[in-house]
Automatic annotation (TrEMBL):
Keyword Magnesium: no
Protein name (record): Cyclic nucleotide-binding protein
Organism: Paenibacillus graminis
Tagged with keyword Ligase: no
Superkingdom of origin organism: Bacteria
Length: 198
């Protein structure tokens, strides 16, 4: 599984093979069962993650008590918690494994030490975050401007496998609609456009 991380190091850094292997030897890879909670809303995060295999759901309970899904992380996606601006450093989200997962685990308390030893690792991490952040910004702008049906079509185009991997009520929450609306839209898309005059 570490070969995926090696691909990132090759693409985003000029680290030597020896340096790459040294980093791979130090990095922790963890296996987590379906249903495992990696982080609870309100906790101070101690780790960041990179998904080698599986699906992790990011969700939070709002003031009305609704459990709202804000993201799904799948293979080759980094899970970073940006909470440094908060006085108590607590997470606004819960992270839950929706499938059996294999994750690269980065300890936040040893992050600076790793970056000190391998300066290009920090550059690689920053580039990965920039790529991910740019994608999130683009998706959020499109989400706000699009209809529920367009949101589903975009998801089917960009992440076609996701719809089969996550429960429908969580997918509906992520797309900002009810499960019933999602079901109707899926049927409508599956049928395709009606013939002229019908």
């Amino acid at each position: 599984m570490k070969h995926l991380l090696l691909q990132y190091m090759t693409r985003l850094t000029s680290l030597s093979k020896v340096e790459q292997q040294a980093i791979l030897d130090e990095i922790l890879v963890g296996e987590y069962s379906k249903g495992t909670t990696l982080l609870k809303q309100g906790e101070v995060p101690g780790n960041c993650y990179f998904v080698l295999k599986g699906c992790v759901r990011q969700h939070a309970v709002d003031v009305t008590g609704r459990d709202i899904t804000s993201n799904f992380y799948t293979e080759e996606q980094a899970i970073s918690i940006f909470n440094a601006h908060k006085p108590d450093k607590s997470s606004e989200y819960t992270l839950t494994c929706l499938e059996d997962c294999v994750l690269v685990v980065g300890r936040l308390d040893t992050e600076k030490e790793m970056y000190g030893k391998y300066t290009q690792l920090e550059t690689m991490t920053r580039r990965m975050i920039e790529e991910n952040f740019g994608q999130v910004q683009e998706e959020f702008a499109a989400f706000i401007a699009s209809s529920p049906e367009d949101r589903l079509k975009t998801l089917l185009h960009k992440r076609p496998g996701l719809i089969e991997r996550v429960p429908q009520h969580q997918l509906a929450s992520y797309l900002g609609m009810t499960p019933e609306s999602l079901s109707r839209i899926k049927k409508r898309i599956h049928r395709g456009p009606a013939a002229p005059g019908l």
